[in-house]
TrEMBL record:
Pfam families membership: COesterase, p450
Highest taxon of source: Eukaryota
PROSITE patterns xrefs: CARBOXYLESTERASE_B_1, CYTOCHROME_P450
Keyword Zinc-finger listed: no
CDD domains: CYP3A-like
GO MF entries: carboxylic ester hydrolase activity; heme binding; iron ion binding; monooxygenase activity; oxidoreductase activity, acting on paired donors, with incorporation or reduction of molecular oxygen
Alphabetical UniProt keywords: Heme, Hydrolase, Iron, Metal-binding, Monooxygenase, Oxidoreductase, Serine esterase
Keyword check for Glycosyltransferase: no
Family: Belongs to the type-B carboxylesterase/lipase family. Belongs to the cytochrome P450 family.
Residues holding heme: C998
Protein name (database record): Uncharacterized protein
Cofactor: heme
């Protein structure tokens, strides 16, 4: 043992650092002109008195008097019979009571690059969870490595052996105390590292061997994975089957050890009592105690249901985003073959990994694996056989877990880097190398180049100093920037892991390091085969059989349309075409239109488990929306939106079956001609208010973005006719930025994600999303709506007390409150026998449904009408002859300052303009979708229940077979005949079709007519320098122009 600077001794500083944990004095480590300050043996947990043995650690209290932190604290008592072969007697001090300490090495100078403090690297030692301690690294040597590259290094002691991992598999002793120690040390870092010059918002956890596995476990556990921001696993990773055991199996080993030493009880309490009474030296005596389990050690982490509440694959998906860097050495297993000195068969080595606790048919799997590694090997060539077994140990213990780590991290959306450390100095003074069959980079070989000390005395030659600089630069770059290459401006020689090159890795060597594409020369495919075969026992690393079936079902669903012989984009396994829906610069409806050009008028695609059939044939549209309405009465809904039949606050848009019919029946009177006539003056008042703003903003000839102006107008209208708003709030409405945010893509994309989630994750993500919504825009909108409803209820109660009779409903809230059904929360309609003709007379609403209706009318009324106005404006500006014709009609029919409801009805050419606009730029096309509720046939295609049917409205409404050769042109005259049935039924559906046609269509037309009539009487729309021609269309769920900049030129 010995670090490369272990001949040097630090100076004890007399200066006191008033740290937040308590005042401390530390060491001074000089390296030429630079000084590193070291504070050793800082307690992060309360002293472990004997009664606290086998309990979770408790944070240390702050001390008041200066503490001398000149020496490492004692290590945690070791365990196992291998300690004597690895550590000479008296090598270090050990103490159970005071072992939970840590050490801080920090640069003494102020950084110019990191204003918030130095990045922090927290290191956990290895040792198979049975041995190891932070003082194993010479402090002077360590100070001369990573801290000189402007990071703070923290090294930690944690409990090992039975003190860290004893379990009874029940609440008496759950185990994993060593992992809870690690977690508490990270809490200490978050709370106190600032006073040592560190940045608690830039923490990297790293470790080697068992410490690397521990770092990976910390990244998975919800108890720890929010305490740091990236992690490095070197020569070890969480996805190692035998590094963790089922708690029942580990409890049996703990009991077997006790009985080997005289314990005679048979219950958890007495077993715990026996372990508490043992001197720590007893835990070294493992010789002769059979584990009867796969793996090496006696005392290991367990899947306890506490630190690890779910299988690892689920925890990975739930974990926060953490950058990850994983390394292995070229021949990790080189030293481990010595664990089988007297083996009678090579199969013994294989069996140590694939026992009955890991696979269901161990003998079959062991033989398969042995044959795989020994193919083409002369069994008489002992050296060749040993090398293959070393490769097996390397792969099963380290290489495949490393690959699985970056795979799972990448699938979960994390940046992941994979490398193999292949450099080895053949002349190195490595005392253990003489035990090995050959020399090469092996387990922990990289450690001395990173921390200044490894196995044996480290006396680096000149070349090795260059390797040290290279390795330390890579890992500190990762700690600083989440990228081992450094800043983005630096050459990106180490590429992130990608499934495009699934066996690509970075080979770290000297003089040249480079990317390679053959990680472990293809050997790891045998482990993928075992995992995919169903042989592997599940429930810890991988979810139980049910989720394997779900995985198979995902693949089965992915090929659904291919197997049905129906064309369409295939997308990717598990997610289908989901990724296409996330590009805001290529909205989904336009992507579907491109697919129609390629695959025809009927095709299919998948999004996770959701199967969608796309149609653009008008006869099929008529079938779905009208003729077979009873089979397609549900809308296409994302699983994450929940069940509309059970949601208390559902709305007319989302509801289906009897609930939809009830909501539709109650809401319909709001949009009758009689009701619209009553609000004509309110809509006109909003239009005149907008005119005042237009005049102010264009007085000097400026261009204005009409999209924003129209959104202000539509929000003002819906606020006054639906939300109890008494006067105009235009351009000062606090709700405007809130509701606009809903249409900027992020919320839409969050909902879209639900389509590709496995069922067991849908509810989890749904709850997270609902919680997020409650804290964001949706919460504010719901609060505003609820306040408006409650205010009106209170007013009604006061009127009733004062003997005031309720008058005619004034707005949506009044209408809905007239139908309020006492304190009923949910009617629980059963749609099993639903048909559109079924008699159903319930005309009541719950309070939650009232809020739901008002909210959806607010959101729908804001967006769609504003978009239609924007598109109309663009088309009129780019077709001046049509605009002049329209102005002539308006001048003729609306000569008075005020425009009446009857005058609006006479603007026939304006109706033609609006209809033609919506033909070329259909709105809310996602609403033109239905869910098949009962298996039926569409044309020659059988559509199974649960399949979504979506209309490609953009293709349908520009189909030359329907609209003629000029289908792409803006020609309002095509509507002048007044006979819309001239066109094939099902060929024009801007507001849907059939019973679920948009209820607000008349209101939208009224708003558009009123506003355009007022504007065009006074102004002419003209394009300008800012006008995008053609319009740039963006969006996720909806398609909208990025902007509609216009000149509004006053008319003579």
């Amino acid at each position: 043992m010995g670090g490369f600077l272990s001949n040097l001794k630090p100076e004890n500083s007399l200066e006191v650092l008033n740290a937040s944990c308590g005042p401390v004095r530390g060491n001074i480590y000089r390296h030429d002109e630079k000084i590193i300050n070291g504070y050793l043996g800082i307690p992060y947990a309360m002293a472990l008195a004997k009664e606290l043995r086998f309990t979770k650690p408790v944070a240390a209290e702050k001390w008041k008097e200066p503490r001398d932190c000149y020496k490492y604290g004692p290590g945690c008592p070791q365990s196992g019979d291998k300690i004597s072969t690895l550590l000479p007697p008296g090598h270090r001090k050990f103490s159970e009571e005071h072992c939970l300490s840590l050490n801080v090495f920090t640069p003494s100078w102020k950084s110019e690059d990191f204003e918030n403090g130095y990045p922090v690297m927290v290191y956990f030692h290895g040792g198979g969870f049975e041995i190891g301690f932070s003082s194993n690294f010479d402090d002077y040597s360590l100070s001369g490595t990573l801290p000189l590259k402007e990071v703070i290094v923290v090294t930690v002691n944690y409990r090992v052996g039975p003190l860290g991992f004893f379990t009874t598999c029940d609440d008496v002793a759950l185990g994993n105390y060593g992992l809870w120690d690690m977690t508490l040390s990270l809490h200490w870092v978050q709370k106190h590292i600032k006073s040592f010059g560190g940045d608690p918002n830039c923490v990297t956890v790293f470790g080697s061997s068992a410490g690397a596995i521990g770092a990976s476990y910390l990244a998975l556990s919800p108890h720890s994975n929010k305490l740091f921001h990236r992690y490095m696993s070197m020569s070890g990773a969480a996805w190692w089957d035998t590094a963790i055991r089922p708690k029942k199996l580990e409890a049996e080993i703990c009991e077997r050890f006790a009985k080997h030493h005289g314990y005679s009880g048979n219950d958890s309490e007495s077993l715990l009592s026996w372990y508490k009474d043992q001197p720590v030296i007893k835990f070294l005596e493992t010789t002769g105690v059979e584990t009867k389990a796969s793996g090496m050690g006696h005392f290991t982490p367990v899947f306890d249901g506490d630190f690890f509440p779910k299988p690892f694959d689920q925890l990975q998906k739930m974990a926060p985003k953490l950058d990850v860097l994983v390394t292995v050495n070229e021949y990790e297993g080189l030293g481990f073959l010595g664990l089988f000195p007297n083996r009678t068969s090579d199969l013994v080595v294989i069996a140590s990994v694939f026992g009955p606790d890991v696979v269901k048919n161990p003998e079959e799997v062991q033989r398969k694996v042995l044959d795989f590694y020994m193919k083409d090997v002369d069994q008489k060539d002992a050296t060749a056989v040993d090398k293959r077994l070393i490769e097996f140990i390397s792969d099963s213990y380290f290489n495949f877990p490393a690959l699985e780590t970056v795979r799972h991290a990448t699938r979960a959306g994390n940046n992941a880097y994979l490398a193999s450390f292949d450099y080895y100095n053949m002349d190195a003074k490595d005392p253990y190398a003489d035990w090995f069959p050959f020399r090469a980079a092996n387990h922990n070989s990289e450690l001395k180049y990173m921390l200044g000390e490894g196995m044996g005395k480290f006396e680096p030659i000149e070349e090795e100093f260059k390797v040290m600089d290279m390795v330390q630069r890579l890992v500190t770059n990762f700690a600083k920037y989440g990228n081992p290459n450094g800043k983005p401006s630096e050459p990106q020689t180490w590429q992130k892991f990608s499934f495009d090159k699934p066996f690509s890795y970075y080979k770290i060597d000297y003089p040249k390091s480079e990317m390679k594409d053959n990680f472990q020369n293809g050997r790891l495919k045998i482990y993928d085969e075992i995992n995919a075969s169903g042989e592997k026992n599940r429930g810890i690393l991988y979810s139980i059989q049910k989720e394997k079936e779900e995985k198979f079902y995902y693949l089965w669903t992915w090929t659904y349309w291919v197997r049905r012989g129906i064309p369409g984009p295939i997308g990717w396994p598990f997610i289908g075409v989901f990724l296409n829906s996330l590009d805001e610069n290529f909205p989904g409806p336009l992507q579907v239109m491109e697919w129609t050009k390629k695959y025809g008028k009927i095709f299919g695609f998948t999004e996770g488990l959701m199967k969608t059939l796309v149609i653009s044939d008008p006869d099929l549209v008529q079938e779905v929306f009208v003729k077979q309405y009873d089979n397609f009465y549900g809308r296409k809904r994302n699983p994450i939106q929940g069940n509309s039949e059970k949601e208390k606050r559902t709305n007319l848009f989302s509801a289906q079956g009897f609930r939809w019919k009830r909501l539709r029946t109650i809401s319909s009177p709001t949009f009758s001609n009689n009701s619209l006539r009553k609000i004509n003056s309110t809509v006109e008042d909003c239009a005149l208010e907008l005119m005042r703003h237009i005049e102010e903003q264009t007085s000097e000839g400026q261009q204005i973005d009409m999209l924003t102006f129209y959104q202000e107008f539509t929000l003002d209208v819906i606020g006054r006719i639906a939300m109890g708003q008494t006067d105009s709030q235009m351009f000062k409405n606090p709700m405007f930025p809130i509701i606009k945010k809903l249409f900027q893509g992020s919320y839409s994309r969050l909902f879209l994600i639900g389509g590709v989630l496995p069922p067991f994750l849908v509810q989890i993500v749904r709850q997270i999303l609902l919680k997020t919504m409650k804290m964001g825009s949706f919460r504010k909108i719901n609060e505003i709506t609820m306040n408006a409803v409650n205010s009106r209820v209170k007013q009604r109660e006061e009127d009733e007390k004062n003997g005031i009779e309720p008058g005619e409903p004034q707005d949506f809230i009044d209408l809905f409150l007239d139908a309020k059904a006492g304190d009923i929360e949910h009617f629980g309609e059963d749609n099993e026998d639903f048909t559109k003709s079924t008699s159903y007379t319930n005309r009541q609403l719950t309070t939650e449904e009232i809020v739901g209706q008002c909210t959806v009318f607010l959101i729908a009324g804001f967006d769609t009408t504003a978009l239609s106005l924007s598109y109309s404006t663009y088309l009129l500006a780019t077709h001046p002859e049509i605009q002049r014709k329209l102005q002539e009609e308006i001048d003729r029919e609306c000569p008075d300052p005020e425009i009446t409801f009857d005058q609006l009805s006479k603007l026939k050419y304006l109706e033609c303009v609006m209809k033609e606009t919506l033909r070329l730029y259909p709105l809310g096309t996602f609403a033109n979708s239905r869910k098949c509720m009962r298996t039926t046939k569409l044309g020659n295609v059988e559509v199974e229940a649960g399949t979504m049917v979506q209309v490609d409205t953009w293709t349908l409404q520009k189909d030359q077979n329907i609209w003629g050769d000029d289908a792409e042109e803006f020609r309002p005259e095509r509507w002048e005949s007044g006979d819309e049935h001239f066109f094939q039924k099902g060929g024009y559906i801007p507001f849907g079709l059939g019973p679920r046609q948009c209820i607000g269509m008349r209101l939208a037309y009224m708003e558009e007519k009123m506003l355009l009539a007022h504007i065009l009487r006074k102004y002419t729309f003209e394009t300008g320098p800012k006008t995008e021609i053609p319009l740039k269309l963006v969006g996720a769920a909806t398609t909208q122009p990025a902007s509609v900049w216009m000149h509004l030129t006053p008319r003579n």
